[in-house]
Specification:
99 residues; 4-stranded antiparallel beta sheet; 0% helix; mainly beta
Length: 99
Amino acid sequence: MPQLTVMLIDGFLHDEVVVTVDGVEVARREAVSTQLLTGIAESIRVDSPEGTISVGISVPSNQSQPEAVIEVPSDATILADLRDGELDLREGTGREGAM
């Protein structure tokens, strides 16, 4: 089964984060904060179905934007930044964690 990786990067401070795949919740993390030394808050790996999937990330503690969604292959790496109350999602290369 393919593995989806979601890397929560910059701008998180004691936030709750919810990840959905095709509308189904697959991960929930509490008190997520970006580490100043690494610039990474958390890396989440979940099983995902084959093919193109819709990945949603929401920060319930952030009132300005309920969810950001991106369409990606099932084995993708998603990079998520929280900037000025807005989630910025982009597809990574898959090598980001090798620093």
